[in-house]
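Worked example 2:
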Amino acid sequence: MGGERLKAIVFGKGKLGHLASPGGGRRWPRTSRWPFGQRPLPRTLYASGRGHYLRHQRRIGQVSFVAQARGLCLARVAGVHTATSQGFDHKEAAVMLQFNAETTRLLENAYRGSDFVKRRLATLEALAPRRGETIVDVGSGLGHLAIELSRAVGDAGEVIGVDPSVDMRTAATSQCDGLPNVRILDGTAAALPLDDASADRAASLQVFEYLSDIPGALFEIRRVLRPGGRLVVGDMHWDSWIWHSHEPERMARMMKAWDHHLADRCVPAKLPHMMREAGYEIVSIRPLVFLDTVFRQDGLAMMLLNIMQAYAIQNDLVDEPTVRGWADEQRHLAADGRFFFSLMHFVVSGRRS
């Protein structure tokens, strides 16, 4: 991945954009650093946890690595600041997208829908939290997983959510109000604000596929885990994606366009080896299938349909008539009872040696 361009979707305050290396195709200077104090970047835009930056005209905003239910690189802008760090090309602007009220409503339904609830439950099952434990949620977002974990560890335990986005931390703090065993801290996957061997377990849901340095994140999480501590990572394997269409070439174009928002589409296949190399013993690997033959309003397929349309058009990846035709076909297939969508999510659990 060292020489690949990295793009990410950013959702927040009604906008969608993408993150790419400066100059569209030029690589990030080797000596450039993020303002978060991570190590020098290896020629690519370094996506260390939620420490991404969105370039928009002469402004940048800190974004989180995943949105709300950590769904598909949707991330909220944490405020816009004047760019002062070296390495940013202020002459370039990311393509932005405006979400209307209907699209926002569909997204909110998806975040609270059964597909995303199912992912959180799979993470909880693999993590197996116990009363009195300290658990780190790496990429806590709005705090949905942190709330579930707080019940599991009880008053004698503690849940620490880590996120560099001010908006995300504020929202999570609000959601977790009244839960004295939950703390929400500023930090990234590569720089956790925690002491060595201070946590019993850690979870990271829909995060690693957006990181350009997964081994670095694994070593950092291992640092804060106690010996025998458990790490659970959940991500999509995008090579498992099946979406029926009578025009397969058009579908392939749309899927390829969506690949631009990922750092790596096959994280689950690579993660077990990476975890072993970072000092973890693999405990379990659980596949979780998202399968739909109907178009559910709160489902993953509906969310992808809306986001992929916007992303492809606003980033000039696919022409608008083709995109609209693709979306219309899926609605027609659903109406005729011929809709089929499938995607695999994997939950990988490892124990710190």
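The longest strand covers residues 225-243. The chain is about 30% helix and 25% strand.
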